[in-house]
Amino acid sequence: MLRQFSLGTLGITVGGILTIMGFVAYAADYATLNLVGFFYGIPLLLGGFALKANELKPVPFTEPPTPSVLALREQQATNTQKEIRRDITQYSYGQDAHLDKALSFLGLSPTDEERPLITGFRETEINGAYALILEFDSPMIPIDIWEQKLDKMTKFFGPGVEVKVTQTAEDELELTLISTCK
After folding, report:
1. 31, 92, 96, 119: most buried by Cβ count inside 10 Å?
2. Interatomic CA distance for residues 52 and 12, integer angstroms
3. C-alpha to C-alpha distance for 158 and 79, rounded to whole angstroms
4. What is the CB neighbour count within 10 angstroms for residue 142?
5. 118 in Cβ contact with 99 (< 8 Å)
6. Which is nearest to 102 in space by CA: 91, 113, 90, 88?
7. Quick one: which of 65, 83, 86, 174 has its CA closest to 130?
8. pLDDT tens digits for 74-116?
9. How far apart are the first and last CA of the chain?
10. Where do the domains of the chain lie?
11. How far apart are CA 39 and CA 46, in angstroms?
């Protein structure tokens, strides 16, 4: 729950309030409130700015899941699918992109400039199975390289997951993780 909102925004808000309170207390000659504002407000404000500068926002749904898909997720989703979904739907700090380490391990991110970026995701049902579909903007890594990595991706995201790659536009593709745990 802690990562469902921006810690940077929280730090900036609380730090800003305490800092302003410290300046007002200084002007009104309230020494105790002045110290609270300066000793707690300014560090919180600076910490909030630092977090905000290094913040990775959650990936948006491109299509909200239906109640039947939510029930299917509860029944069939693998631990890997749950972990990926949890990772991409929360604020993150200290990462360059969502799933950056996984993409590097799979050989799909040789450099930061070439790394595919997740632009959205959706959950659906495919032949009675729960599927998590990750939508990527991949201008530097063509579909044929993704297809060459299918076996490695199946082993990486498995067991219990079938992996498919589909090109949807010139530089866009979808990575589909289908649960085989029916």
Report:
1. 92
2. 8
3. 9
4. 13
5. yes
6. 88
7. 65
8. 888 888 889 999 888 888 888 888 888 888 888 887 777 888 8
9. 29
10. 2-53, 56-179
11. 12
